[in-house]
Amino acid sequence: MTRQRSISRVTLDQPIAAVVCGERAQIIDASVSGVRLTHSTLFSERKDCPVAFTWEGKQIEFLGRLRWTKLQRGKNIYQSGLQIERIDPFSTTALRKLIESCVERALREQKANAMGVPPAAEAPAKVRRAQLYARHELVHGIWRKTTTSEPQQPESGFTVPLNESPQHIELLRAAYAVADPPTQSMIRRLAELSITTPEITARRYTP
């Protein structure tokens, strides 16, 4: 479970401006355990590093510990990773909602990219083709994958179309493993939506 927590990280659609250790920065990845960010000024060495940013009108603040910093090749820009040391309940809830929104967007966009907008002549062939799904179940902290023709969602885990990319499956597994029960339920509903209403997703994300 510790390993799953370390990889539960989502890439933000757009960087979020933040104040980190008193310096300006931009958050590019986020997880329930920390963030990755870019910045132009080196942070001073200190045990606790205050982090503050706003997402959809919600203020998120926590004390982080600087884990690593590296200079991007060919640029005067640094990247750093901060581990969350202390965070209040309100900020925890807002951070989880930020991660959930990234998971939801990734699920919808992945489905849309896989489908595209097929020509009318190809539609009957898609209907006739046998449907297969991948059921991913989390059992005693271990993920188990099963190929099935049944689209039902499992009690622990989720079922998605078989053609979902490995990168996207890794994202969903990592997010599910660290989520609370309501968030896990939301992930299952989104997975079910990707199976039962693909035409809605395709219309919403027309290339």
Low-confidence stretches: 1-7, 117-130, 199-207
Largest sheet: 6 strands, antiparallel, barrel
> How many discrete structural domains?
2
Helix-strand category:
alpha+beta
Please count the beta strands (DSSP E, at least 2 residues each). Answer: 9
Task: Give me the side-by-side strand order of the main sheet.
Answer: 1-2-3-6-5-4
Strand content: 35-45%
What percentage of residues falls in helices of 4 or more residues?
A: 25-40%
Report Rg: 19 Å
State the separation between the terminal residues, measured CA to CA.
38 Å
Give the number of helices. Answer: 6
Mean pLDDT, as a whole number?
79
- The backbone outline, from C-alpha atoms, is elongated
What's the order of the H and E elements? HEEEEEEHHEEEHHH
Description:
The protein is α+β, with helices and mostly antiparallel strands. It folds into two domains: 2-87, predicted glycosyltransferase like domains (Thrombin, subunit H), CATH 2.40.10; 95-114 and 130-204, no CATH class. The chain is 36% helix and 37% strand. Strands 1-2-3-6-5-4 form a six-stranded antiparallel beta barrel. Strands 8-7-9 form a three-stranded antiparallel β-sheet. The longest helix is centred in the middle third of the chain and has 27 residues, at 89-115. The two termini are 38 Å apart.
